[in-house]
Write a structure and sequence with these properties.
The complex is a heterodimer of chains A (592) and B (174). Chain A contains 24 helices and 19 strands. Chain A has 592 residues and is α/β, with parallel strands linked by helices. Chain A has 5 domains: 106 residues, Glutaredoxin (3-Layer(aba) Sandwich), CATH 3.40.30; 208 residues, NADH-ubiquinone oxidoreductase 51kDa subunit (Rossmann fold, 3-Layer(aba) Sandwich), CATH 3.40.50; 84 residues, Ubiquitin-like (UB roll); 88 residues, Up-down Bundle (de novo design (two linked rop proteins)); 56 residues, Alpha-Beta Plaits (2-Layer Sandwich), CATH 3.30.70. Chain B is of the alpha+beta class and 174 residues long. In chain B, strands 2-1-3-4 form a 4-stranded mixed sheet, covered by helices on one side. The model of chain B has no long low-confidence stretch (mean pLDDT 86). Classes of the chains: A alpha/beta (592), B alpha+beta (174). At the A-B interface, helix 1, helix 11, strand 11, strand 15 and helix 17 of A face helix 2, helix 4, helix 5, helix 6 and helix 7 of B.
Chain lengths: 592, 174
Amino acid sequence: MKKVIVGMGTCGLSAGAQAAYDRLEELLGANPGSFELSRTGCIGMCYLEPLVEVRENGNRTIYRGVTPELADEIFNRHVVGGEALDEHVAYSLDPAGNQGGSDADYLKLQTRIVLRNCGTINPESLEDYEAVGGYGALRKALKEMSPEEIIEEVKDSGLRGRGGAGFPTGLKWSFAAKQESDIKYVVCNADEGDPGAFMDRSVLEGDPHAVLEGMIICARAIGASSGYVYCRAEYPMAIHRLMLAIAAAREKGYLGENILGSGFDFDLKIKQGAGAFVCGEETALFASIEGQRGMPRIRPPFPAEKGLWQKPTNNNNVETFANIPWIISNGAARYAAFGTEKSKGTKVFALAGKVVRGGLAEVPMGTTIHDLVFKIGGGIKDGRQFKAVQCGGPSGGCIPASLDKTPVDFESIPATGAIMGSGGLVVLDDASCMVEIARFFLEFTQSESCGKCTFCRIGTLRMLEILTRITMGEGVPEDVPKLEELGKQIMEASLCGLGQSAPNPALTTIRYYRDEYDAHIVDKRCPAGSCSALVDFFIDEEKCTGCTLCVKKCPVGAISGEPKKKHVIDTEKCVRCARCITSCRFEAIYTK
Amino acid sequence: METVRDEDKFTYRLWRYDGAPGELIPLLQSAQDHFGYIPRRAMSYISSVTGIPESDIYGVITFYSQFRLQPMGKYVVRACAGTACHVSGSRMIIDTIEDELGIEVGGTSEDGLFTLNTVACIGCCSLAPVVMINDDTHGRLTPASLRKLLRTYRRREKEARSKEAVETCEDDGA
């Protein structure tokens, strides 16, 4: 029987997957037994959602942009008629391995280890996960391997922490394993706070059991009996699916006492983060689980020694844990075959911004930025020019187009001044102002600074003030050296990663786009035409209908025009508040 | 989507509290689920049960962006201010909402219908710029389409209210 699978991750649902699912459910109700209806997580092609797959005898056909009407057509022509609607197919795969469809190259160029099950299995079904070999790695780890052997295997794989810092995972585990304690903890950091990063969310929504399995194997390796998943409350779907997964795993005996008859006990709980970026830092995360303000503390002692509740704790992020079952099942050598000399395996990137195909892409370490943006991402939207990628979120930096041959790995990215981060990759085009981007990130880190370290608390505010001033056209020549000096001090005098990296966006943009800073400060001009205080506003005569709405909205009377006649903006009077843009119903106002 | 189970509810959690550490944040979360915000009296209850001073509880509430000390509107408009939305013009989107609803970020409209918040990232970057109204996500917005959207919510509410008024009159008549 044909199986029809609707992609119902957050991205799919926001694009209207529920309507397609409801329509298919109606069709199934009217034609009982005609097909099997299921759901899955995000396959990564977020730009084509809602996606619906028809699967039969190893043939996979994924349709893009499925409206309820298209769902009808898919049912009539494909499910009943047996004929694919080629013009709507995004991706297809036959049993011989032939791939087709309009966007086949998006998936073809990827190596999917972490995302191996995302978008193919039903995340709410333990049976689906078991059918693709799920919990096989746990069985192997419990029955055939000693804790030391597990750690050795992870060490040999060369896996490094995917949360951003890139610390070798096996080594981290060995520290916690060495500690003598009545109780140890395993913590999974699912507090994905970087604006522009959503790979952890997709993994939790699409394959929650893989994360759980990785955590249980880790617990076995270090001798932990209790664990926590610390997940953002902003991800209700991820939390919901984790809850279901934990309950199912408990029932099947993968969690709880005497797991798989091995005598090993482990159980875990979900803690919902309450919205604080700094809680991505592990000691702040522990404070938050303990019910306090999430503020970091001085290390040492390191978490492996004294972590959560002052007990030895191992903390890894979602993607790291999701790698573990694959490594145990397939062996360290196969994992280490991917990637570069010092950065093994693959990395998931969240491609967003001004790129044609925004979504998730998992590629071997060492893939160049150019390949990510152009071969997988499909280039820049609206035919504009590629300017830079912002890598690593608010802690990261901008890598200019001229360095697009940079391979993504834990050595090459930091060499540019950016950081690897958790994998958010925001593509910027020539209409993006780099000073404004730096200001945007500083605004974020400034408001998220927990306030413990003076340099971070006050220093970031001073940097933000200066950057705001520059974008308003009120910058002075001393501003840039001042930013550099402040940045250096903040990095040196802050306790945790937030402060140590907060100046990165400003420092990298100064390094690569000094001319843009000078244009703002000296010529009072925004080369990208993005800072509204430094551009002029005009009315497109073609689009203006003469409705007089902007005339009424303008606070300084700079717009003149009579009903049904084209309006004109007096640039001398204009105060560049942009109220005319937000009020125009015909998108007739533009800036230059 | 129903994710709140009975044992997550506020009164149940308070009643069940056995002194286990780390319960404060879940207690506050369930209080907020229950009341829509964290009223002063909820702080007092939690303090009396857990023995944590109200000042500490206040400190935790104000640290995390999830918690609110004021009631929220019927519709919570969360404008995404993440990186992808930012480069796609989210500032303009937020300005539009502020102008259309006559409130600033963090505020609630006079009729109690809308509260406007910003959120760091909703995770639908490919649909930028994005706004969430309660649990519904709306993507690829322009100032014009956004105004239309907000007016639909307003109109729907107005219609529901006048319908209610008619029904009440009819009830009185009978």
